[in-house]
Amino acid sequence: MTELDQIFNIPPYSLKKDQKQAIIVDHINRLNSHHSENCEAYKRIRKAYDTYGKRQSKIEDFLSIPVGLFKDFELKSIKDNEIIKTLTSSGTTSSKVSRIFLDKTTSRYQTKALSIIVQDFIGSRRLPMLLADTQNVIKDRRLFSARGAGILGMANFGRDHLYLLDSELKLKVNDLLNYIEKYKNEKILIFGFTYIVWLNLYEELKRKNIDINLENAILIHSGGWKKLADRQIDNTAFKNRLHDAFGITKIHNFYGMVEQVGSVFMECEFGYFHSPSFSEVVTRSADNWAPKSFGEEGVVEVLSILPYSYPGHVLLTEDVGIIYGEDDCKCGRSGRYFRIIGRIPKAEIRGCSDTYEE
Amino acid sequence: MNNTDRLRRIFAEALNIKIETVIDSLEYNSIPEWDSVAHMSLVAAIDDGFDIMLETDDVIDMSSFAKAKEILGKYDVEF
Fold it and tell me: Can you tell me whether residue A26 is helix, strand or coil?
């Protein structure tokens, strides 16, 4: 146990603005020192931006590093023999993938963080669980893809897991029907990547004209809409169509990225992503990086107090979002709540080294 | 068979390791055989073997063989 473990003893959406900001600022300052001492490259970045050795007092004042940096550099604050897990991003837009190195402690933080967030939505009992994927994504044990890591992380909340796709990504229709019959009186948890749920589950069942009842199910999905661009489907349409087809009402998207342990932003019943006690979200102007006000569009920056094994505690994402408010969402959860509305236009984020590939 | 032996056998079978290596200090992620994939099989085997249903927190906190015994105590499994 470490001092940081205390953050997991309080409900994830219980801190009010002042309390939370004090905690985040304190821990991010500590992480700045920790990573500057243990990651030479990170220290050089902070020196280059003249923030080395400086403490900040506001969450908007920290130096963020672009998430893409993990594609070009192996940034870590641990020795090689301490690495127990290497996470990689799915790498859909370019051939490069991020590589994120976890040691025992940071890996445990990641598990705990996801745990208290998801339990806030589904409760402490493990539920019968359908995974909208093939078991093959968890076969390569040493090097998990984002998909494999996501599946494994979520599997802790379930029991009697059924992987819905075979090795050729074909839907196992009979297994699915049998499973739903077996658990027809119980709450079922379904997890999958957004595009897989849509293409391999929803569209496949529609195409085969198979009617299933998922009224008791709770669906958690993640991964973004990029691979569904040609379907022109957004979050609202996704929820409506799945509800119309299968009667499912509890559908929660979550926003997060492999590059930042602890940043798991679950979508509430009112359609907003929520920042938990150990992470925070800031939006910035793409012109001068000044923080944006609530209600304004901006480039999303995420902060997490959990990454100790690599310097991913303050990251500038490639996403554009709007923070709608803090501590006053209709769902009752405290903290900032926001939506993601798109990606930064490529020209603004790509350095010359990347444009070659386009 | 007492519960310690039963749990040791479950560990050995679920993780595919020799039963002699299942000792109190055996820790999650300390051997390649006990990783997050195997952990799922182990949890399912414990659920079945003791006819219980571990809660999520216990699945996550089950970080060693000794800890597993401690957790099972909450489910009225005595060691």
Answer: helix
Question: What fold does the segment set A1-358 form as a domain?
Answer: Rossmann fold (3.40.50)
Q: What is the ipTM of this complex?
A: 0.91
Confidence of residue A319 (pLDDT cuts 50, 70, 90): very high
Share of chain A above pLDDT 70, in %: 93
pLDDT of B29 reads 86
Q: pTM for this structure?
A: 0.91
**Residue B65 buriedness (CB in 10 A; 0-12 / 13-18 / 19+):** buried
B3-73 in CATH: which number?
Answer: 1.10.1200.10
Task: Identify each DSSP E strand in A157-243 by its residue range.
Answer: 158-165, 188-193, 217-222
Test B44 with A160 for CB contact under 8 angstroms: yes
Which among A104, A118, A156 has the least Cβ separation from residue B59? A156
Of the residues A124, A159, A161, A218, the best mutation for testing chain B's interface (the one with the most B CB atoms within 10 Å of its CB) is A159
Domain segments of chain A as ranges: 1-358
Residue pairs spanning A and B at CB distance below 8 A: 41
